[in-house]
Amino acid sequence: MMDLPYAGIKKGQLYLAGDIGGTKTLLGLYSLEGTELVLVRERNFPSKDWQDLTALIQGFLDEISLTPEGITGGCLSLAGPITQDKCFLTNLNRVIHCPDLRSSLPLRRPLLLVNDLEAMGQGLMDLRGEDLICLNPSAESPSPSLASPPALSLARPSLNRALIAPGTGLGQAMILADGRVCATEGAHGDYAPRTEQEIRLWRFLAQRYGHVSYERVLSGPGLADLYRFLYWEALSPSLPSPASDSIPTPDSSLTPAEITKKALDGICPLCTETLELFVKILGAEAGNLALRTLAYGGIYLGGGIPPKILPKLQEDGFMEAFLAKGRLRELLSQIPIYVILNERTPLLGAARLAAAAGCPPA
Ligand SMILES: Nc1ncnc2c1ncn2[C@@H]1O[C@H](COP(=O)(O)OP(=O)(O)OP(=O)(O)O)[C@@H](O)[C@H]1O
């Protein structure tokens, strides 16, 4: 449930929300009761199982005997850049034609289509205490030195915040001090190795993909590639990195979930090494994001992976890499870092956007 800080929404209205990711597609139907949105129904579909998003949503509504005309409004959060009238779902390699989707689902208000990190940023506003866990509680209390410059003499909630979200892909967004959410495609920027080992990792990934972005490293598929890289190095440290199809792999077919489970159970040293490398690179890129966005209000780790690797994030590797920015270490040490435990955050955000569309701020 969440409060809506907007006037003019009538009781009993129904809103469609969707979170379309590279692995899972969540659809939700929310009812507005008073000023709260209450989840009425939710379904989770593997994204690889559908080709026609309209048919999927029609089927979802059919199950509860609703037609699009019976729904007040809706918003879908899409894991890919939205340009003009198209969205490229990067990790599904599919294109959504926005006008076609809107006209095939004639809700009472036009369907909104937003980037998934915009929806996640909106959903953040509705999270409760139990939905977040702080990795560095000593940074949580407002710091005088952060608040002291005249332009930043604001309470911490009014400072910029940023989101970094590893899942099937890697999402990044900035939440401005005034609450506006700016999704970015920053995760497709160039991966910058920091150690000799990471330089070898870069070379390994460059042979496979050409362009090595942060998403190639900090995602479920990236985790599997980190494992393959360490596996290859352990097997033949003196050989140059191989082309992807020539990697000998009795064990390298582990899924990301298997790697993290074995690592957290302490039963596979290579899996532990993989997860520790992943967490360090995530810390380093979270620090880069904090610097780029001046996210003094906090860094939020979203997406499907962080809640599943929480014990590793709570060890020293993540924070050490986050802080390792030379002369700005002290500044970064004052930024709180939170893991978002609620995996419905983008769905909540989409519901909030759907209900708020067309309503004047209260
Ligand atoms: N326990 C785990 N440890 C590490 N990775 C995992 C685990 N479970 C699932 N994954 C990986 O997480 C990814 C799915 O992430 P998520 O649940 O955020 O899906 P999604 O919302 O569809 O992704 P996105 O929004 O990034 O497109 C997959 O690559 C999957 O292999």
UniProtKB/TrEMBL annotation:
Molecular-function annotations in GO:
ATP binding; D-glucose binding; glucokinase activity
Q: Which PANTHER family does its entry note?
A: GLUCOKINASE (PTHR47363)
Name the predominant localization.
Answer: cytoplasm
Protein name, UniProt field: Glucokinase
Please state which protein family the record places this protein in.
Belongs to the bacterial glucokinase family.
Catalytic reaction list: D-glucose + ATP = D-glucose 6-phosphate + ADP + H(+)
| A biological process term (GO) from this entry | glycolytic process
- Among the entry's GO cellular component annotations, what is one? cytoplasm
Organism of this sequence: Desulfitobacterium hafniense (strain Y51)
